[in-house]
Amino acid sequence: LLLTSVALMFTSLSYMTIFVFFLTVITLIIDKECEPYQRRWTSAFMYFLDWQLVFFIEAVIMMDADIISGAGAVATSSVLLTTNLLLVVIVVIDQRGDMKREMRESEILRQ
Predict the structure, then answer these.
(1) How far apart are CA 81 and CA 70, in angstroms?
(2) Rounded distance between C-alpha atoms, residue 108 and residue 102, angstroms
(3) Who's near 68: CB < 8 A, 6+ residues apart?
(4) DSSP labels for the chain?
(5) Does residue 26 surpass a pLDDT of 80?
(6) Long-range contacts: 54-59, Cβ < 8 Å, 24+?
(7) Dmax of the chain from CA atoms?
(8) Which of 38, 78, 89, 98 is most enclosed, with most CB atoms within 10 A?
(9) Mind listing the pLDDT tens digit for each residue in 31-65?
(10) pTM
(11) How far apart are CA 102 and CA 14, in angstroms?
(12) 63-71 long-range contacts, Cβ below 8 Å, gap at least 24?
């Protein structure tokens, strides 16, 4: 809510961008340090998503400042997309490992 509502109150694009970037970095730090999720894979997934958001904001800033354009913008977007898909695969693999571990632990407790 803070990211969407308060960001619209800024009259300058540069102030809004700084606010959004600052808020995403703070969210990244809080998610990493507090680990608010019970399952380890959920915490890892959120941590990676927070980093993905930071990378996206940096890419948009660079594209807006014409640091990246044309083929560079396509390459940056492709890297972000590939990274996003890779993160999903990593989290799914990690979740399967957690599920197998929980099944082994429940079998041991039954015996």
Answers:
(1) 17
(2) 10
(3) 59, 62, 76
(4) -IIIIIGGG-SSHHHHHHHHHHHHHHHHHHHHHH---SSHHHHHHHHHHHHHHHHHHHHHHHHHTTSS-THHHHHHHHHHHHHHHHHHHHHHHHHHHHHHHHHHHHHHHH-
(5) yes
(6) 54/21, 54/24, 54/25, 54/28, 55/80, 55/83, 56/80, 57/17, 57/20, 57/21, 57/24, 58/21
(7) 65
(8) 98
(9) 888 877 777 777 777 888 888 888 888 888 888 87
(10) 0.63
(11) 48
(12) none
Percent of the chain with pLDDT over 70: 96
Residue 80 is encoded by which pair of tokens?
């972000």
Altogether, the residues listed in the chain come to a count of 111
Amino acid at 62: M
